[in-house]
Amino acid sequence: AGGRGQRRTAKYIQSLKADLRLLFSKQLRELRGIESWMDLKEGLDNMVMGIHTRIKNVVATSLIPAFKRGYQRGMAEGVRKGEDIAVDLDADAKDTLRALHAGVPMTGSYKDIPAALGREFNKILAEAFIEQPNLYLIKREVMARIDKQLNLSMGAIERIARTELINISNEGRLKAYQRREKEQGEQFRYTLVVARGVRTCEAHRAMATWNKGSKHRIPKKGLILNDLIELQMKVGAKYGMKLQGNQLLHPNQRTVFLRAV
């Protein structure tokens, strides 16, 4: 199931990248026919809006399967082979899924990429306007520099989309755990799987089970949900971390929420 889920996520990401490249090509072609500086500026603004819309659309399309995948994994964890597993969403999970769908996206930096591109486009346009003597040369320089900037931005766009899908899957997993806690009449213990990569923020490094020198480290046996949330709030306040979602994960971090078993 994990392999299928990963392949499905990769398919959504590839679809997003292909869609954005078509958008870039189409709008760069349109820029060549522009006959005024103001029309050139408007064309670049439209490109930024298109990027914003396409990221949101791909995440919205993949939200439901990502949530269900997390939910099904949460229901299956720790279950003996041969035991029946309820995989249909209960009423609470359905309510959460509806709320998530209405609030897409969760990740704050989803809006940061188009905004950053818009600032960069305006900078490129202003510099070309100052340095080049006519509209033809302005367009040529702008298109060359923007094409390069768009290629540089694809990696960041892909990371944001992947992070968004991980966060949504975490939400589904949490709903499954909470359902099982009620049905089994016990409290589970939870942990966060924190990557060791250079992009991992200081807040998540502080909570990582592998960070033995940190006083905020999550113990190997995990924490009950309320204690884990309290720890995240405490660490979040220290590092200025904005927490989102029902399990209060840092929205821009690819951290996986799991039951400690």
List keywords for this structure.
elongated, mainly alpha, 7 helices
Number of helices: 7
* Residue windows where pLDDT falls under 50 for at least 5 positions: none
Oligomer: single chain
**Percent helix among the residues?**
55-70%
- The shape, in one word, is elongated
> Largest sheet, described in full?
2 strands, antiparallel
Indicate the radius of gyration in whole angstroms: 22 Å
> In which order are the strands of the major sheet placed?
1-2
Residue fraction in strands: under 5%
Taken in chain order, the helices and strands follow as: HHHHHEHHE
Give the beta-strand count: 2
First-to-last CA distance: 19 Å
Structural category is mainly alpha
Characterise the protein shown here:
The chain has 261 residues and is mainly alpha-helical. The protein is built from 7 helices and 2 strands; from the N terminus they run αααααβααβ. The chain has a two-stranded antiparallel ribbon. Helix 2 (37-76) runs antiparallel to helix 4 and helix 4 (109-131) packs antiparallel against helix 5 (135-184). The radius of gyration is 22 Å and the shape is elongated. The two termini are 19 Å apart.
